Fold this protein.
Amino acid sequence: MRLRLEDEQATIALGAKLAARARPGDVLLLEGPLGAGKSTLARAFIRALAGDQRLTVPSPTFTLVQAYETPRGEVWHFDLWRLAGPEGLTELGWDEAEQKIVLVEWPERLGSLTPVDALRVTLSHDGSGREIELQGEQRWLDEL
Ligand SMILES: Nc1ncnc2c1ncn2[C@@H]1O[C@H](COP(=O)(O)OP(=O)(O)OP(=O)(O)O)[C@@H](O)[C@H]1O
Ligand SMILES: [Mg+2]
């Protein structure tokens, strides 16, 4: 399924909508080039789950993973841009992430560990806005 996100607010609104459908055990893979809007979507998703629009959500570029306690369960936000190899993923606690709500920027780095049932979100630049493609279970896609 494809959508056009006219401006940053549209990306934020989509992040909040997806958050309303998320539950522990879900994985969202956020793909797209530098500046596509992955972190904007992730931040809106986490803030909606936390029920706090002012929650600080730093990019986990250097820490690689950032965890949040929310009323809807724990959320783990990965940014794997700097991940050296799959061994590094185990050190980050990837095995435990199975029971969390998980967001992954640069999911290409997961290789064979990519969950098959994840929601795949692909963002691309489209003039001044963004084009987004979503592939996954129907419950994510209904009425977006
Ligand atoms: N739908 C949209 N239309 C126009 N601009 C947008 C849209 N969504 C997000 N942006 C803007 O795009 C810029 C980059 O967003 P963001 O930092 O989320 O990208 P990113 O994919 O995480 O990039 P990086 O890979 O460099 O971390 C931000 O300034 C954000 O406001
Ligand atoms: Mg980012």
Q: What stands out?
A: The chain has one domain: 2-141. The CA atoms of residues 20 and 49 lie 7 Å apart.
